[in-house]
Amino acid sequence: MRLIITGVTGVAGLSIYRAALSDSTIERITLLTRRPVPSWARLPPNAGEKTEVIIHQDFKSYPLDLARRLAEHDALIWALGKSAVGMSEEAYTELTYEYTIAAARALKEAGAGSESRPFRFVYISGEHADPTGKSSQMWARVKGRVERELPKLFEGTNIRAHVFRPGYFFPSRTYPEDRLNQRSAMLRAADVVLAPLLTALYPAGYTPIEDLGRFAVEVAKGRWPDQGLFRNADMRRLVKQI
Predict the structure, then answer these.
(1) Is 4 exposed, middle or buried (0-12, 13-18, 19+ CB in 10 A)?
(2) How far apart are CA 127 and CA 20, in angstroms?
(3) What distance in Å separates the CA atoms of residue 161 and residue 143, rounded to the nearest whole number?
(4) Of the candidates 9, 44, 40, which has an alpha carbon nearest to the alpha carbon of residue 26?
(5) Angstrom distances, CA of residue 191 to CA of 15, 183, 187, 197
(6) Would you tell me how many other CB atoms lie within 10 Å of the CB of residue 113?
(7) pLDDT over 80 at 189, yes or no
(8) Fewer CB near the terminus (10 Å): N or C of the chain?
(9) Rounded to two decimals, what is the model's pTM?
(10) Under a CB-based contact definition with an 8 Å cutoff, are residues 223 and 3 in contact?
Protein backbone atom coordinates (compact mmCIF):
# COMPACT_ATOMS: atom_id res chain seq x y z
CA MET A 1 0.00 0.00 0.00
CA ARG A 2 1.13 3.55 -0.78
CA LEU A 3 0.03 6.21 1.69
CA ILE A 4 0.17 10.03 1.73
CA ILE A 5 0.24 11.91 5.04
CA THR A 6 -0.07 15.64 5.61
CA GLY A 7 0.50 17.57 8.84
CA VAL A 8 3.40 15.33 9.83
CA THR A 9 5.07 18.04 11.95
CA GLY A 10 1.95 18.25 14.16
CA VAL A 11 0.90 16.05 17.07
CA ALA A 12 -1.63 13.93 15.15
CA GLY A 13 0.37 13.75 11.94
CA LEU A 14 3.57 12.62 13.62
CA SER A 15 1.71 9.88 15.49
CA ILE A 16 0.09 8.71 12.25
CA TYR A 17 3.47 8.71 10.50
CA ARG A 18 5.02 6.54 13.21
CA ALA A 19 2.10 4.12 13.04
CA ALA A 20 2.44 3.89 9.25
CA LEU A 21 6.18 3.24 9.51
CA SER A 22 5.47 0.36 11.89
CA ASP A 23 2.86 -1.21 9.60
CA SER A 24 4.39 -3.85 7.33
CA THR A 25 1.48 -3.66 4.86
CA ILE A 26 2.38 -0.07 3.99
CA GLU A 27 5.18 -0.20 1.47
CA ARG A 28 5.67 3.49 0.76
CA ILE A 29 4.82 6.68 2.64
CA THR A 30 4.76 10.08 0.98
CA LEU A 31 4.87 13.12 3.26
CA LEU A 32 3.26 16.16 1.67
CA THR A 33 4.63 19.01 3.72
CA ARG A 34 5.93 22.55 3.68
CA ARG A 35 8.97 21.66 5.75
CA PRO A 36 10.93 18.48 6.51
CA VAL A 37 10.29 16.32 9.55
CA PRO A 38 12.15 18.06 12.40
CA SER A 39 15.43 16.56 13.58
CA TRP A 40 14.12 16.18 17.14
CA ALA A 41 11.42 13.71 16.05
CA ARG A 42 12.45 10.16 16.95
CA LEU A 43 11.49 7.71 14.19
CA PRO A 44 11.89 3.97 13.52
CA PRO A 45 15.10 2.96 11.70
CA ASN A 46 13.20 2.22 8.48
CA ALA A 47 11.93 5.80 8.08
CA GLY A 48 14.44 6.81 5.43
CA GLU A 49 13.98 3.80 3.16
CA LYS A 50 10.18 3.81 3.43
CA THR A 51 9.52 7.54 3.05
CA GLU A 52 9.43 10.07 0.25
CA VAL A 53 9.13 13.74 1.21
CA ILE A 54 7.46 16.20 -1.14
CA ILE A 55 8.05 19.80 -0.10
CA HIS A 56 5.03 21.73 -1.29
CA GLN A 57 4.54 25.36 -0.32
CA ASP A 58 1.14 26.25 -1.81
CA PHE A 59 -1.57 23.95 -0.44
CA LYS A 60 -4.21 25.70 -2.53
CA SER A 61 -2.58 24.80 -5.85
CA TYR A 62 -1.45 21.48 -7.31
CA PRO A 63 0.34 21.34 -10.68
CA LEU A 64 -0.95 18.51 -12.84
CA ASP A 65 2.27 16.48 -12.56
CA LEU A 66 2.12 16.62 -8.75
CA ALA A 67 -1.58 15.73 -8.70
CA ARG A 68 -0.90 12.70 -10.88
CA ARG A 69 1.94 11.57 -8.61
CA LEU A 70 -0.36 11.79 -5.61
CA ALA A 71 -3.19 10.00 -7.43
CA GLU A 72 -0.93 6.97 -7.88
CA HIS A 73 -1.21 6.29 -4.14
CA ASP A 74 -3.91 4.26 -2.40
CA ALA A 75 -4.93 6.66 0.37
CA LEU A 76 -4.29 10.00 2.00
CA ILE A 77 -4.60 10.91 5.68
CA TRP A 78 -5.21 14.63 5.97
CA ALA A 79 -3.88 15.61 9.40
CA LEU A 80 -2.88 19.15 8.50
CA GLY A 81 -4.30 21.68 10.93
CA LYS A 82 -3.89 23.59 14.16
CA SER A 83 -5.88 25.05 17.00
CA ALA A 84 -8.20 27.91 16.08
CA VAL A 85 -7.18 29.82 19.21
CA GLY A 86 -5.88 33.24 18.20
CA MET A 87 -6.82 32.81 14.54
CA SER A 88 -9.34 34.82 12.56
CA GLU A 89 -12.15 32.91 10.88
CA GLU A 90 -10.70 33.86 7.49
CA ALA A 91 -7.25 32.46 8.31
CA TYR A 92 -8.65 29.33 9.94
CA THR A 93 -10.95 28.71 6.96
CA GLU A 94 -8.02 28.95 4.56
CA LEU A 95 -5.95 26.46 6.57
CA THR A 96 -8.73 24.04 7.45
CA TYR A 97 -11.22 24.21 4.59
CA GLU A 98 -9.51 25.65 1.52
CA TYR A 99 -6.34 23.56 1.80
CA THR A 100 -8.30 20.33 2.28
CA ILE A 101 -10.75 20.93 -0.54
CA ALA A 102 -7.96 21.98 -2.93
CA ALA A 103 -6.17 18.67 -2.37
CA ALA A 104 -9.41 16.74 -2.75
CA ARG A 105 -10.18 18.46 -6.05
CA ALA A 106 -6.66 17.80 -7.34
CA LEU A 107 -6.98 14.09 -6.58
CA LYS A 108 -10.41 13.96 -8.18
CA GLU A 109 -9.23 15.68 -11.36
CA ALA A 110 -6.19 13.39 -11.54
CA GLY A 111 -8.44 10.32 -11.44
CA ALA A 112 -7.32 8.80 -8.16
CA GLY A 113 -8.55 5.31 -7.35
CA SER A 114 -10.32 2.63 -9.34
CA GLU A 115 -13.65 0.83 -9.10
CA SER A 116 -12.02 -2.26 -7.64
CA ARG A 117 -9.67 -0.32 -5.37
CA PRO A 118 -11.04 3.07 -4.34
CA PHE A 119 -8.73 5.78 -3.08
CA ARG A 120 -9.45 6.62 0.58
CA PHE A 121 -9.30 10.22 1.77
CA VAL A 122 -9.19 10.21 5.57
CA TYR A 123 -9.93 13.59 7.10
CA ILE A 124 -8.85 14.19 10.71
CA SER A 125 -11.59 16.43 12.06
CA GLY A 126 -12.55 16.93 15.70
CA GLU A 127 -15.21 15.81 18.15
CA HIS A 128 -18.13 18.30 18.07
CA ALA A 129 -17.43 19.43 14.51
CA ASP A 130 -20.76 20.64 13.13
CA PRO A 131 -21.71 19.93 9.49
CA THR A 132 -24.95 21.89 9.94
CA GLY A 133 -22.98 25.13 10.40
CA LYS A 134 -25.09 26.13 13.42
CA SER A 135 -22.45 25.78 16.12
CA SER A 136 -21.44 28.88 18.06
CA GLN A 137 -17.82 27.67 17.84
CA MET A 138 -16.04 28.89 14.73
CA TRP A 139 -13.69 25.89 14.45
CA ALA A 140 -16.64 23.46 14.61
CA ARG A 141 -18.43 25.21 11.76
CA VAL A 142 -15.33 25.25 9.55
CA LYS A 143 -14.41 21.61 10.15
CA GLY A 144 -18.07 20.69 9.76
CA ARG A 145 -18.10 22.37 6.37
CA VAL A 146 -15.24 20.14 5.25
CA GLU A 147 -17.09 17.09 6.55
CA ARG A 148 -20.21 18.11 4.64
CA GLU A 149 -18.54 18.90 1.33
CA LEU A 150 -15.94 16.13 0.97
CA PRO A 151 -18.42 13.29 0.29
CA LYS A 152 -20.33 15.48 -2.18
CA LEU A 153 -17.13 16.35 -4.02
CA PHE A 154 -16.30 12.68 -4.46
CA GLU A 155 -19.72 11.58 -5.73
CA GLY A 156 -19.38 9.64 -8.97
CA THR A 157 -15.64 9.07 -8.48
CA ASN A 158 -13.45 6.26 -7.18
CA ILE A 159 -12.52 8.23 -4.05
CA ARG A 160 -14.12 7.54 -0.68
CA ALA A 161 -14.20 10.09 2.12
CA HIS A 162 -13.77 8.97 5.72
CA VAL A 163 -14.01 11.43 8.61
CA PHE A 164 -12.41 10.72 11.98
CA ARG A 165 -13.31 12.98 14.88
CA PRO A 166 -10.77 12.51 17.68
CA GLY A 167 -11.32 14.01 21.09
CA TYR A 168 -8.72 15.77 23.21
CA PHE A 169 -5.21 14.46 22.53
CA PHE A 170 -1.65 15.47 23.30
CA PRO A 171 1.91 14.33 22.47
CA SER A 172 3.02 10.89 23.55
CA ARG A 173 4.73 10.35 26.88
CA THR A 174 6.97 7.89 25.04
CA TYR A 175 8.59 10.77 23.17
CA PRO A 176 9.36 13.63 25.58
CA GLU A 177 10.92 15.57 22.69
CA ASP A 178 7.47 15.85 21.14
CA ARG A 179 6.01 17.56 24.17
CA LEU A 180 8.88 19.98 24.46
CA ASN A 181 8.68 21.01 20.82
CA GLN A 182 4.96 20.74 20.05
CA ARG A 183 3.45 22.17 23.23
CA SER A 184 3.95 25.40 25.13
CA ALA A 185 4.56 25.23 28.88
CA MET A 186 0.94 26.25 29.47
CA LEU A 187 -0.40 23.47 27.25
CA ARG A 188 1.91 20.89 28.82
CA ALA A 189 0.49 21.83 32.21
CA ALA A 190 -3.05 21.57 30.84
CA ASP A 191 -2.29 18.11 29.45
CA VAL A 192 -1.15 16.90 32.87
CA VAL A 193 -4.42 18.04 34.44
CA LEU A 194 -6.90 17.17 31.69
CA ALA A 195 -5.68 13.71 30.72
CA PRO A 196 -6.54 11.92 34.00
CA LEU A 197 -9.79 13.88 34.36
CA LEU A 198 -11.01 12.97 30.88
CA THR A 199 -9.87 9.37 31.22
CA ALA A 200 -11.83 8.96 34.45
CA LEU A 201 -14.89 11.15 33.86
CA TYR A 202 -15.35 11.46 30.10
CA PRO A 203 -13.37 8.80 28.21
CA ALA A 204 -15.37 9.44 25.02
CA GLY A 205 -13.79 12.91 24.94
CA TYR A 206 -10.19 11.75 25.17
CA THR A 207 -8.06 10.13 22.44
CA PRO A 208 -4.81 8.35 23.35
CA ILE A 209 -2.37 9.57 20.72
CA GLU A 210 -1.00 6.12 19.87
CA ASP A 211 -4.56 4.91 19.25
CA LEU A 212 -5.20 7.93 17.03
CA GLY A 213 -2.24 7.02 14.84
CA ARG A 214 -3.01 3.33 14.53
CA PHE A 215 -6.71 3.90 13.96
CA ALA A 216 -6.24 6.50 11.22
CA VAL A 217 -3.91 4.13 9.38
CA GLU A 218 -6.44 1.29 9.60
CA VAL A 219 -9.18 3.53 8.21
CA ALA A 220 -6.89 4.45 5.31
CA LYS A 221 -6.27 0.76 4.66
CA GLY A 222 -10.00 0.20 4.32
CA ARG A 223 -10.60 -1.88 7.45
CA TRP A 224 -14.09 -0.39 7.80
CA PRO A 225 -14.80 0.43 4.14
CA ASP A 226 -18.45 1.41 4.39
CA GLN A 227 -18.30 3.71 7.41
CA GLY A 228 -17.91 7.36 6.50
CA LEU A 229 -17.89 8.96 9.96
CA PHE A 230 -15.97 7.77 13.01
CA ARG A 231 -16.72 9.54 16.27
CA ASN A 232 -14.19 9.28 19.06
CA ALA A 233 -16.37 6.73 20.86
CA ASP A 234 -16.34 4.61 17.69
CA MET A 235 -12.56 4.76 17.65
CA ARG A 236 -12.27 3.74 21.29
CA ARG A 237 -14.42 0.69 20.52
CA LEU A 238 -13.01 -0.28 17.11
CA VAL A 239 -9.34 0.18 17.96
CA LYS A 240 -9.63 -2.89 20.19
CA GLN A 241 -10.02 -4.94 17.00
CA ILE A 242 -6.57 -3.96 15.74
Answers:
(1) buried
(2) 23
(3) 14
(4) 44
(5) 17, 9, 6, 10
(6) 22
(7) no
(8) C
(9) 0.94
(10) no
